[in-house]
Amino acid sequence: MAQQDENILKKVVSHAKEYGFIFPSSEIYDGLSAVYDYGQNGVELKNNIKEYWWQFMTRMHSNIVGIDSAIFMHPTIWKASGHVDAFNDPMIDNKDSKKRYRADVLIEDAVAKMEEKIDKEVEKAAKRFGESFDKAMFVQTNGRVLEYLKKINETNARLKAAMNNNDMADLKQLVVDLEITDPVSGSKNWTDARQFNLMFSTDMGSIAEEANKIYLRPETAQGIFVNFLNVQKTGRMKVPFGIAQIGKAFRNEIVARQFIFRMRDFEQMEMQFFVKPGEEMKWYEYWKENRMKWHQALGLGKEKYRFHDHLNLAHYANAACDIQFEFPMGFKELEGIHSRTDFDLKSHEKFSGKKLQYFDSEDNQNFVPYVVETSVGLDRMFLSVLSSAYTEEKLEDGSERIVLKIPPPLAPSKVAILPLIKKDGLPEKAEAIMNSLRFDFQCYYEDKDTIGKRYRRMDAIGTPFCLTIDHQTLQDETITIRYRDSMKQDRVKVDEVHKLLEKECAIKNLLRVI
Ligand code: GAP
Question: Domain spanning 395-512 has what CATH number?
Answer without folding.
Answer: 3.40.50.800
